[in-house]
């Protein structure tokens, strides 16, 4: 995903704004229909709503994207409910999520594709469909590395959105993949956690997302703003949340890059815990922070998976059961072995180890076993896609 900042004139900006607004008004209409009729699949929903969305002035590409956006949003919601993100059946959060149609903000992102949007890299301008016809020559700016990626890769779908008054285009790029390493020389086990974001069986450890001092300061600020409850306080809170997400995203990019680079360099595969274990671990935390941590976990898992695929590094997902309380040295298993968050002392052989490091070694071993089992079963390729990871990067352009 490459980010491009648009620099529209005020006239162009108002065309973009009214286009985005109408698209989202239509998305809300489609969402209401979907909710009332109980029709959530893109294809079926299109039959029901395409005509009226077109009649509102949307081009055929835009109309299809609006409908697919709604179908995807319900799909994501359903997956979230299934994964327990909204609590048990009957809980307040779950009832709230299920009892009304999904709504879109007036400036929520709208997808575009090559048929209704194009970037002229040399000229540094963008041309795209709007309600008032094709808008040409919108200047844009981006980093040098983003420009290089855009020049080298085929562009997929892009999301147009307005964030804090800035116009952004997030372009999905299709990066060429290396052929899969079919003969990995062992596996790097990766333990994901809260205190340590990632610990590998090869000795790499990425410490927590924030220093405790920073965290305490942020929490104090958050409490003060929440108590205030004014509109501007909410705005500041929102901005703070975004900043926090951006930070976590940057960290996740660095950590995943480093792990995948090591696996590639040493000819190894990567073993990750399957998603369920991660959810269990964050379940007891406070809802808002838990949501953030669980989001950050998933993102890191996704980043590792897609970077590995790009580099041809095999990834296997292992059952997380007992990885944190089995001794990686002697195999002894006892609940009491995990002394606390950080310490592991084996009652079998007496070894003292960092708890996450010990877990990551177990994950590595499980990964090797899973890989060998996959090969013995003469399956054409061992599992390398996701078991339970959502993958947003593989969106396909919609056909009519
Ligand atoms: Zn032991």
Automatic annotation (TrEMBL):
Keyword DNA-binding carried by entry: yes
Pfam family name, one: Cas12f1-like_TNB
InterPro entries xref list: Cas12f1-like_TNB, RNA-guided_DNA_endo/Transpos, Transposase
Chain segments carrying region Disordered: 370-400
GO molecular function: DNA binding
Keywords: DNA recombination, DNA-binding, Transposition
Domain Probable transposase IS891/IS1136/IS1341: 172-263
Segments forming domain Cas12f1-like TNB: 297-363
Taxonomy, superkingdom: Bacteria
GO biological process, alphabetically ordered: DNA recombination; transposition
Entry similarity comment: In the C-terminal section; belongs to the transposase 35 family. In the N-terminal section; belongs to the transposase 2 family.
PANTHER family: RNA-GUIDED DNA ENDONUCLEASE RV2885C-RELATED, TRANSPOSASE
Protein name: IS605 OrfB family transposase
Species whose genome carries this gene: Thermomonospora umbrina
